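Help!! Second protein's tokens look totally different from the first
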Amino acid sequence: MNGQPDRLEINLRQIRIIHLVMLLTIPLYFVTAEMLAPPTARDVRAIRQGIIVMALLFSGVAVVVRKRMLDSAVDILRLKPDDTPALVRWRAAHIVTFALCESVALFGLVLRFLGATTLEGAPFFAVAFVLMLVFRPVAP
């Protein structure tokens, strides 16, 4: 090495910044929901069930996408850290995973705007935050 960071290090740093920003937006969604949600709670049981199913589905898709896209890219990057297609797949796996996790928080935000109580919406924010922590970016 000539003292210059390699492409993998640069990409890892960028993905960590994206991860941190997206992780920090989840509490902001919660605060926004609490400040702007309707003051009176409504019965949202029917829609809540659908949103729960969608949140579970998105969480499961995040696990599958991450595993499929990331495993193959990591195997290649361990042998050839400058492999461009593997690096692109590695970045994409992280970004897609983060977006799917973030969408769980957005489901909570929507639910709150529809009139759900804080207790009905809070689990979505919590699950999204935990998923983002679990799926933190690591070097291959």
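Here's the second one for comparison:
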Amino acid sequence: MSLDAHVVVDRGAFSVDVSLSVPGGSVLALLGPNGAGKTTTLRALAGLLPLTAGHITLDGTALDGMAAEQRPVGVVFQDYLLFPTLSARDNVAFGLRARGVDRATARATADALLARFELSGHADVRPARLSGGQAQRVALARALAVSPRLLLLDEPLAALDAGTRMTVRTDLRHQLEAFDGVTVLVTHDPLDALVLADHLVVVEGGRVVQSGSPADVARAPRTPYVARLVGLNLLRGHASGTHVDLDGGGSLTTTEAQQGPVYVALRPSAVTVSGEQPHGSARNSWPGTVRSMEARGDTLRAMVAGPPDVLVDLTAAAVAELRLVPGAAVWCAVKATELDVYPAS
């Protein structure tokens, strides 16, 4: 049981060319910025957009020749799209009724699903009176009511406030673990992807730029977008042994020898900032200029222009002691042991 898809959709000025392979019982997250082609890919899998080329095969059966209503697919849309005049029970039963199931059987199935989602007490409630988390669970129950083999989730937590997202995210993870089909989740939120997915596919400009387990992607980002998502600085250069000449200027010394094009990743918290050139154990230091600062919880994140340009996490005490303001001249330093270097090709 698996999904094998090569989704090619030409929309004039923008095209999508994305390949996916997802085993049954697992969750794949399509992660990327707005306009990357994630939702276009999802809609093509659902049959809501025709393929220009490629194929969609689920459990060995070709879906690309089927109409949307014939596919064994359940969809949870970003805004849930619950029918406002129907109760929660009738919303969940809707797909079954559309497929010819009699009213009593469809409603019994809906009641069983609502009980599973701890919503039995809301069966007769219309969507306007449901909380965001309750509406999300009703939408998921509706998608599961038709016994899909492929479950598609389009930004399923985007409509929730920050406080509700944490609880609903955990609940959704438990529900997806119980689903033995294939799940494809579209999101631009890295936390949703890291918590919910077994495998990530990062899409930028309609193309796959990186894929792997959440841990692998977070450990070794391959584009600036992915690096920003996981909170790392990402530099590209050319390695000769443990020496890396950076593409944007400057150089770094690493502990791991490489040859050829490489990426160098480092945490903002690994970079130290001082007012004078350091003479400690750090094997890498360079002058820079503070360009901007912003608060991030109990720390401040500064952009320091080099080369290389890096993000640096600082305590409020350090900012006050060094009298750091935009335009201030500083020295940056990082130990070679704090650098992760890996091939860029």
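Reply: Different proteins will give different token patterns, so don't panic. The chain has a mean pLDDT of 92.
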